[in-house]
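Something for you to look into today, if you have time. What I am after is a single protein written out in full by you. I want to see for myself how the chain folds. Could you add the entry underneath, on a fresh line?
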Amino acid sequence: MLVETDTVTAGSAWQIFSELKTARAGIVLQPEEADGASIFRVQFPRATRADFPVGRGFAVTAGRVRRVQVAVLSPEKGT
């Protein structure tokens, strides 16, 4: 399952959000410290927003947290 959401509005799609929390696996790009507990029921390491430029975040698998970098296409120039 692939879901893109803002944690503020995710609760309104409660059925999908509940499945995400049950799976305890996913990637959070540019995370807030509270995202780990609210989405995956794990504690994210302390970090600042500056530590996470576009494409960088945390991957959670079976309750284990790892820092990741995801490839991001750069915007095309002149279009």
In short: The helical segments are 7-10, 14-23, 35-40. The radius of gyration is 14 Å.
